[in-house]
Amino acid sequence: MQKQAYQPIDCLHFIDGKFVPSLDEKTFDNINPATEEKLGIVAEGGAPEIDLAVKAAKRALNGPWKKMTANERVAVLRKVGDLILERKDELSTLESLDTGKPTWLSGSIDVPRSAYNFHFFSDYIRTITNESTLMDDVALNYAIRRPVGVIGLINPWNLPLLLLTWKLAPALAAGNTIVMKPAELTPMTATILAEICRDAGIPDGVVNLVHGFGPHSAGAALTEHPDVNAISFTGETTTGKVIMTTAAKTLKRLSYELGGKNPNVIFSDSNLDEVIETTIKSSFINQGEVCLCGSRIYVERPAYEAFLEKFVAKTKELVIGDPFDPKTKVGALISEEHYERVTGYIKLALEEGGTIVQGGKRPGGLDKGFYLEPTIITGLDRKCRVVNEEIFGPVVTVMPFDTEEEVLDQVNDTHYGLSASVWTNDLRRAHRVAGQIEAGIVWVNTWFLRDLRTPFGGMKQSGIGREGGLHSFEFYSELTNICIKL
Predict the structure, then answer these.
(1) Whole-prediction pTM value?
(2) Which residue ranges form the domains of the chain, and what is each CATH number?
């Protein structure tokens, strides 16, 4: 392993402006997925710590945070973004230590976009206008926007800092107070983010952080707590169903971004070199541990063989290994448990009649760490589990198709509906096909290109609601209509 500029940290809870251990002093180990070595210890919270954090957040709702003007809140949130950038190298190092992802990825995408989330939503506060309606000459109606209250943010392990700031920034911009529960596998950057919020001038109790596990522990306690008004969750679909059942008892607001099994549809008139360059990213970036990755690749038959040959060749060039080596393109999977899950799907693909044309095994010379070669599978049909179930690793299937109707039928034959990509130089076909794909976002001749003003979220079992711009504020604020008789 290369030498890191910053060292791992032990992680405490952050409650009411202070870093504190668990009441019973219980901890768990934080493991580096690239080396399998212990990074440090993490305070293990549960219902008692969640209750303390929620009480602090509830008190803070009516404290100095509420009295801040919009301009004062803008300044504080922009400061959070500024401090994230000031600590970019440290955050990038900790993110890569926690996740196993290459530092070029955490340093060039995760951390800068995390800062931008705060800069964007701090500026967005100034643009929001409230609707007003004149009822003939009888009455004037106008709406005022207020915070929802205490918001629980439950975050995944694949993009820990980026996705946490994506939720935290608009929730704070709308005036709410927060209890964050990061994934237990990736606690370090969330801990630093809490410190940054404090240093930026966010009052005590407004942002709270409780580490711990999900079911029957901190996560469950947060979703069950009667004084939590809303939950924003990004993660696996099955967990989302459990949260929904629990949250129903107190009629909490829910915002979900869940799993995906995203199609990448490639027509033969597209530029294959351009397609391959982006498809390598959409298949294997972040070890394939991105909910938006295109894991079902459909190629129009005239281009199928040429695409597959180029795709396999480019995949072989990807350097796998030490996240701190600048040459590395693919790091380690998040944990041993997840490694076993992903490799289990590769074994299943063979049982289902598939052919592994690239990868499928541990890279040579990497005996420690949860490394897996980027894997390309052919020969499976639409009913196979490997084609239908979310794997969340560097594993894709490639299948040929003959007609638009055929590929649309296969693309939409899923209970997921998060994202899709379409590649074609035919403008009419691009509009026609994109408009028929059942997904929350469809990219045409690109992937992962995001404007934070636009709606983001999933259909079917890939999510509930939308985030981004005004859509985030609709979730994180309450509207009151005031009717004045003239």
Answers:
(1) 0.96
(2) 13-258+460-485 (3.40.605.10), 262-444 (3.40.309.10)
